[in-house]
Write a structure and sequence with these properties.
This protein is an alpha/beta fold. The chain is built from eleven helices and twelve strands. The chain binds ligand PBG.
């Protein structure tokens, strides 16, 4: 302890915990609706909301329903929504061409939301996995996930998203050099204000399982993503990735998954002081929901506590499937 602290009983640390008002006065961190980004799944069709079984309470929405969801989110004060497409089988090919189709699901949803709900920021995902027949985030050549050829495709994908009107582009692919390549392409094309939120420290994780169900990539994925996503053993490497992405033009950086990597969040914030986000991923959400549904934990309290943890660890915001529920709880 610091020498300035008087010994007991002059110091009784319970004094500030006695009432809710005193606890609020000394609260060191706060969680607000302005800290939340809501990931949503988009599918084809009209007037459809289809449950994702491994993510209780989460659905895949047709574009018209995504627009409604965006309006609800904006009304709740949620500043940003993040789109993930569930691509039909025809859109999953070896050349991944659907990824830069101006009229793909993600780009159609972006235009529809921009027209109807202009005040919510739209974030999109840059990676090839929703469009590839292998489930990988890049092109596969002779069993290798090739880097440079993938980056060229990611640039085309990002430009199509910027053209559709997205506010924040989130490269989640973990290829080397993609932030610099996307940034310079955006500048050349006149999209100078599009933000890059880099999935800079993204770990090869078991916690993505339910997401891969939600976007239909689980069945397709051959092998794992360990040659491009990070090893859970590493922390210095995360700092190098974050530094690299900031130096290439990322405006904001992300650590993913969230709760198992709070040490990385804290270190990143302390070291770089850049806008830092965590992604509370599908498996984290599923664990809390499953335990709550079994009556093993109080789901609402676990939700709030898990999200406060990110703020305490230094994050500026959190991508979370709980965003609307947390926003309602905060209102
Ligand atoms: C893939 C991507 C993944 C997630 C977001 N983008 C999964 C993966 O890397 O396999 C996971 C999100 C979640 O689990 O909630 N580009």
């Amino acid at each position: 302890m610091r020498p300035t602290q008087a010994p007991f009983p002059a110091t009784r640390l319970r004094r500030t915990r006695r009432t809710p008002g005193l606890r609020a006065l000394v609260a060191e961190t706060s969680l607000g609706v302005g800290d939340l980004i809501w990931p949503v799944f988009v599918r084809s069709g009209e007037n459809i909301e289809e449950p994702v079984p491994s993510m209780p309470g989460v659905v895949r929405r047709s574009v018209d329903r995504v627009v409604e969801a965006a309006r609800e989110a904006a009304d709740l004060g949620i500043p940003a929504i993040c789109l993930f497409p569930y691509t039909d089988a025809a859109g999953r090919t070896a050349d991944c061409a659907e990824a830069w189709n101006p009229d793909n699901l993600s780009n159609r949803a972006t235009r529809a939301i921009k027209a109807a709900v202009p005040d919510i920021a739209i974030m999109t995902d840059v990676a090839l996995d929703p469009y590839s027949d292998t489930g990988h985030d890049g092109f596969v050549r002779d069993d290798e996930i090739v880097n440079d050829e993938t980056v060229e495709a990611l640039v085309k994908q990002a430009l199509a998203q910027a053209e559709a009107g997205v506010d924040i582009i989130g490269p989640s692919d973990m290829m080397d050099g993609r932030i610099g390549a996307i940034r310079s392409a955006l500048e050349s094309a006149g999209h100078k204000d599009v933000l890059l939120l880099s999935y800079a420290a993204k770990y090869a994780s078991a916690f993505y399982g339910p997401f891969r169900d939600a976007v239909g990539a689980s069945g397709a994925l051959k092998g794992d993503k360990r040659t491009y996503q990070m090893d859970a053993a590493n922390s210095d490497e995360a700092m190098r990735l974050i530094e690299r992405d900031l130096s290439e033009g990322a405006d904001m950086v992300m650590v993913k998954p969230g709760m198992p990597y709070l040490d990385i969040c804290r270190r990143a914030k302390d070291m770089f002081g850049a806008p830092t986000f965590a992604y509370q991923v599908s498996g984290e959400y599923a664990m809390i929901m499953a335990a709550a549904q079994n009556g093993w934990i109080d789901g609402d309290r676990a939700m709030a506590e898990s999200l406060m943890a990110f703020k305490r660890a230094g994050c500026d915001g959190i991508l979370t499937y709980f965003a609307p529920a947390m926003a309602r709880a905060l209102a």
